[in-house]
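sry for the spam today, last one i promise. struct tokens for design, 274 residues
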């Protein structure tokens, strides 16, 4: 086993694979020492680990030593290769594959090189320079309309800049197999808040102002502020917009179930309702 490929087991699978895949895609090779195809595939995966260093982590699970992990992921034939992204299984294949096939399968699912347009656009967006991020992404899409990672970030930029219509168009243009990715679902939820906000006159009443505050915070990704405003609205009036505060709050919970404090807000809502 090469230095770039390390063994993981049940004790560290959560940290190394599921949690680790939120920062970097993690490729997991389920193998066994007696498996001839596993031995044929191993050097291919080691070369992938080297070629995509900094963009991919490669680990191995010995199915003989870790039968519970093998059962958990329903491994029936080896080698079985799984790619995890954002804490979830993103793609997989079974059996030894030639290097070209593995590379073709893997490359579209990896983050871009650090000097690529997407990385530069993401850096500009983090710095608050939406105009520069938009220009970089639009240029990249003009060259390659199928660059769906750029399109996804452009949707986020447009939404964050207040253009919900443009954001929606970019999200709709993503292929069907990407529509249910967590990042896409999060942007769609934020898009809902932006569209709903446009229908509210925040100056009409105190309840409208509270609802607008919650929507505005949610659309901007400020989940704690959104939850506080919408909880206050639920406490004030369940009749407002046919229980609109509770319905919006449930969508806030969907934005990022792992957000610190979301569990507390769920419990507070439950106490209000019961």
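last one done:
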């Amino acid at each position: 086993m090469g230095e770039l490929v390390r063994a993981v087991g049940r004790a560290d699978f959560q940290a190394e694979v599921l949690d680790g895949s939120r920062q970097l895609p993690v490729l997991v090779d389920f193998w066994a020492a007696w498996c001839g195809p596993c031995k044929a595939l191993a050097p291919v995966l080691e070369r992938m680990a080297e070629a995509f260093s900094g963009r991919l982590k490669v680990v191995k699970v010995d199915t003989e030593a870790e039968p519970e992990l093998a059962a958990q992921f329903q491994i029936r034939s080896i080698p079985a290769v799984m790619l995890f992204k954002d804490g979830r299984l993103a793609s997989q294949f079974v059996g030894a594959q030639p290097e070209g096939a593995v590379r073709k399968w893997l490359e579209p699912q990896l983050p871009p090189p650090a000097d690529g347009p997407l990385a530069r656009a993401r850096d500009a967006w983090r710095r608050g320079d939406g105009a520069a991020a938009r220009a970089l992404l639009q240029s990249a899409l003009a060259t390659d309309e199928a660059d769906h990672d750029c399109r996804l970030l452009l949707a986020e930029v447009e939404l964050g800049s207040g253009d919900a219509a443009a954001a929606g168009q970019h999200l709709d243009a993503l292929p069907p197999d990407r529509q249910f990715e967590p990042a896409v679902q999060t942007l769609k939820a934020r898009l809902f808040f932006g569209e709903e906000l446009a229908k509210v006159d925040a100056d009409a009443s105190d309840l409208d102002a509270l609802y607008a505050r919650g929507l505005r915070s949610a659309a901007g990704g400020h989940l704690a502020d959104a939850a506080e405003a919408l909880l206050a609205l639920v406490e004030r009036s369940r009749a407002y917009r046919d229980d609109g505060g509770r319905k919006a709050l449930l969508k806030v919970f969907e934005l990022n179930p792992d957000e610190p404090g979301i569990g507390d807000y769920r419990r507070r809502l439950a106490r209000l309702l019961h």
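The chain is about 55% helix and 10% strand. ok im logging off now
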